[in-house]
Design goal:
Radius of gyration: 16 Å
Largest sheet: 2 strands, antiparallel
Mean pLDDT: 89
Number of strands: 2
Distance between the termini: 21 Å
Order of helices and strands: HEHHHEH
Strand content: under 5%
Strand order of the largest sheet: 1-2
Low-confidence stretches: none
Number of helices: 5
């Protein structure tokens, strides 16, 4: 259940990013197609961040230290561009115009995703009867 909640949170964050950042577009034609595209791109983005980001952090550890972590902004932008490339390879109507929209888009996605995660827990905690 937590994975589905995380997927929806990423999709909503991606939707907000397409509204706020010029140069990031979803052109599905209909609302239903746009929602499916956002969910698919959020899934791709989650997989890219789960698989590639830890590898980049380990390999580029010295750069993270030397730049006091600021290289993470560039890495996130590049991962956002990779997500765009994978979405294009899968014929999804999602497009990022270049590095700067990816840079700002990754920042907006992180902030909006964090804000939504504050309101929506990953797990439903309940008491057992």
């Amino acid at each position: 259940m937590g994975i589905l909640i995380r997927l929806v949170v990423n999709a909503v964050a991606l939707w907000v990013t397409t509204l706020v950042v010029p140069g990031i577009d979803v052109t599905g034609g209909s609302a239903g197609r746009n929602v499916l595209t956002l969910l698919a791109v959020a899934l791709i983005f989650g997989i890219v961040n789960a698989v590639i980001k830890p590898i980049v952090k380990v390999v580029g550890c010295i750069f993270y230290i030397l730049t006091l972590g600021l290289i993470a902004l560039v890495v996130n932008a590049l991962l956002f561009l990779l997500t765009d490339w994978l979405a294009s390879a899968l014929n999804l109507p999602f497009h990022v115009d270049g590095f700067w929209p990816a840079f700002w888009g990754a920042i907006v996605m992180a902030i909006v995703g964090w804000a939504i995660s504050l309101a929506v827990p990953d797990r439903w905690e309940g008491t057992r009867a």
